[in-house]
Amino acid sequence: MIARDWLTLLIAFEGAPEGLDPVRIQKGMFLFARETDVPASQKYDFRPYNYGPMSRQIYDDLDALVAEDLVEQVPVRGQSWTLYRATAAGVARGNELVAQAGGAYPQAVEHLFATKGAVASVSFEELLTDVYDRYPDMATKSVFRRRA
Fold first, then answer.
1. Do 71 and 62 contact (CB within 8 A), yes or no?
2. Contact 14/74 with Cβ under 8 angstroms?
């Protein structure tokens, strides 16, 4: 498994049928990186950025997954960003990856599934507040300000 495989799984798992926005993908992969015991070589490196932890490699991998027809971009009216959701081929690849990773890292697979549900089910503000509360080192360059 490589980091891009885990990214594919995050997007392919059930939940968020319309897709995930880039912030939720970044935070989901960050939580996975910080909270699972898979080898560091299978995780993205994160740095504090405008909305907390960010890995530029995720964007490159999203582009590759789109080019491979495993993920599609879904435009969001009035926004400059898009949602990302698995194609039928991406779901099939996700099923293969669950079988592959499930033997070696069953807790990590379960954690990633739960993480997708968590990042998809809260508001943008709730997501960032939770990540910043748990990992204040990643909020140092944030432009996001909590409401009083």
1. yes
2. no
